[in-house]
Structure formats: C-alpha cells, structure tokens
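re: ur question from earlier - yeah i can do the single chain one, its not a big deal. heres the input i used so u can compare w yours
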Amino acid sequence: MLVHSRAGRTAARVLFFVLFLPLFALPFAVVLAASFAGNWSGALPSHPTLDHYRDLTGGDSLDALTTSLWTALAASALALLTGGWAALAAERLRGRARRVLDALFMLPVAVPSVVVGLALLVAFSQPPLLLNGTRRIVILAHAVLVTAFAYQSVTAALARLDPAYEQAAAGLGARPLRVLLTVKLPLLLPSLSAAAALCFALSMGELSATMMLYPPDWTTLPVRIYAATNRGSLFTGAALAVALMLTTLVVLLALGRVRSRADHR
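and the output i got, formated as tokens:
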C-alpha cells in the first residue's frame, strides 16, 4: 500500500468500508432483498417468496435474458474485432492522423448513448442500409458504444509490448502475417480478454440506445427491467436485475480464467 504506517493503513481501511458499504454494497443488498420480498412496508422486507424468479425459467424474461446474452456476445466480438484491428493498424501512426483516429473511436463515449441510438436510427432507416426494426441495429448500437474500450485497451497493450519479440521472429524469416498470428496476438491475449470482459459487461447493462432501437421480438433484459419497474412491479424488476448481475458475473469469471491462463503462458 501507499500508506506505510499502521495507523494510516487502518484509517484507509475504515474510510474504504465507510464509503464502500453505503455507496456500493448496500444498494446491491437492497435489490437482492427486494427480489425475494412479498411485501415491504416496514424497515425490512416481509413474506419472502420465490415467485419473482419463476418467470426466469421460461416465458418473456428468459427470452430477454437470452437476447441480452446474444447481443452482448455479438457486440463484444464485433467491437473486439473492429477496435483491435484499428489499434493494430494505427500502431505506427503519429501526429494528427493518430489524434483524429483516437477521437473518432472515442466519440461514441463522449456523447450520450441516446444520441448514438438516434444517429443510428436516422442513418439506417432508409435503403440501401435499412436496419431499422431489426435485431442487427441493436447489436450494431451496442458495438458502437463499446468499441472505444476495446480500441483503448489494445492500444495501451501495444504501447507496452516489447518490439524485440517481433524483431526476433522477423529476423528468423517469419512473414508479417505469421508474426501477427503467432507472436503479437498471443502476447495481446490478456488485454484482448480484458477488453472483451469490459465490452460484454457494458453491453449487458446498456439501456438508453436500446430503448430507441429494439424491435418487439428482440427485447433485452434491461429493457424488461425498466418496463417492470415503470409499471410498479419493483420486486419483479429486482429479481430480473439480480439475474442480470449473476449472468454477467458468471461470464466475467469465465473470461477472467482465460486471461489468467494467458498471463501464465
């Protein structure tokens, strides 16, 4: 730790728990408690029940969870492919060209996501690229919103990469494509898996742009949570939120294992 004295470390830990519990842990605990509550008229919930989770075993809620998973996986793969390729292509750019490319990829993060949704809605509502009303425009919107994180992650990893490995492979006669596939990409795998995890988590929770674009047959779980809470079904919305958090956590743990193995290699 940066604090070397024992009293300082104790104070830092106390401050951490004082800030962490009310700001982060307590809201999650409230959502978890509400998901099992049959009633909440006092300080604590009462009449515990599993009824709010029953729809997750089938019906619209399970469809929404599956839709969120497919959307997040597809958007993350597209963002990783696009952002990673752009970072590799821009590795040797300098000056104004590099600043322009960085600005282009960071633009969707700099504006509200609802603006991104509106831009895509306007851009793809007429032939020849008519995507409005399809699931593809939802996946595209999620990919646009998270590609910046993949680009920045790979760019930072490339800046730390020792060029001696590529030079040694090239000196042994390896062509650029082989150097990329057998040297550079394996070295970038930890950063790629970290970028994939971040893109997936952000896509799973995206709501604003999705609300403007989603068709009736492609409703994500955040949209269903919003609809449930908007009509007053707070306990049902809490159960759906818990399912969203647990699903995202499971996928992130799996990607974390991939990153650990990559670091070990």
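The CA atoms of residues 87 and 155 lie 5 Å apart. not sure if urs matches, ping me
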